[in-house]
Amino acid sequence: MDLLSLVKNRQSARVYTDKKVEIEKINQILEIARLAPSACNSQPWKMVVVNSQDKLDGLKKCLISGSVNAFLCNVNTFICMVEEPAVLRKGVTVPSDYYTEYDIGELLAYITLAAENVGVSSCIIGRVDTEKIVSVLDLNENEKCKIVVALGYSDTPKREKIRKSSDETIKFI
Ligand SMILES: Cc1cc2nc3c(=O)[nH]c(=O)nc-3n(C[C@H](O)[C@H](O)[C@H](O)COP(=O)(O)O)c2cc1C
Which CATH architecture fits 3-169? Predict the structure, then answer.
């Protein structure tokens, strides 16, 4: 698919079938995500795939709150973005973690587009209980997880994209 079509086709899916995402497809998505850019190439991340039943139940308790994100109940694959301190490869610490959220944003964009490219639907989930998720993912004191991506198969028809106009968002000076 060309890039514009891919971007237009990707949408947040909030209804999923029971079909499991194949490990081959998960690996294809991760391989693309791994190549995402980051500030100083620090790659302050790990991607934790959760697709085993015992972990799924615990993870969903960190993501669903009453009716908020209740659609995740039958999702069976998540990729959790784990932030870690930004350290340059040569061992020099990046002056601040100012860019970490931008870096994770790149990762999210790569994951969601890579998923769409292999016919897998996705939804970024920013409502995460950041305290509860520590034990579910077995994070250490330097790691945190504030965002995850749900992956799966969805029959939802494509919606029209609702976006601000180019006049409102783009300026040439
Ligand atoms: C940082 C971030 C957090 C989000 N968190 C949630 C969420 O918790 N639940 C949800 O249903 N959608 C969530 N979304 C999806 C957005 O609602 C969605 O991307 C936006 O409405 C545009 O729709 P589209 O993705 O279908 O084009 C999140 C998106 C981003 C980028």
Answer: 3-Layer(aba) Sandwich (3.40)
Pocket of ligand 1 (CB under 6 A): 11-12, 14, 69, 123-127, 161
Cα separation of 71 and 52, whole Å?
18
Beta bridge partners of 72: none
Look-up of token digits 């106009």: 165
Q: What is the pLDDT of residues 85-136, one digit of tens each?
A: 887 767 666 666 789 999 999 999 999 999 999 999 999 999 999 999 999 9
CB-side neighbour CA atoms (13 Å) of 154: 26
Residue matched to tokens 């497809």 = 25
Whole-prediction pTM value? Answer: 0.96
Q: Report the alpha-carbon distance of residue 30 to residue 15 in Å, rounded.
A: 23
CA nearest ligand 1 atom 11, residue: 69
- Residue 23, both tokens: 């490990």
Domain boundaries, the chain: 3-169
Concatenated DSSP letters for 79-145?
EEEEE---B-TTSPBPS-STTHHHHHHHHHHHHHHHHHHTT-EEEEE----TTHHHHHHT--TT-EE
Query: Which residue's CA is minimally distant from atom 28 of ligand 1?
Result: 124
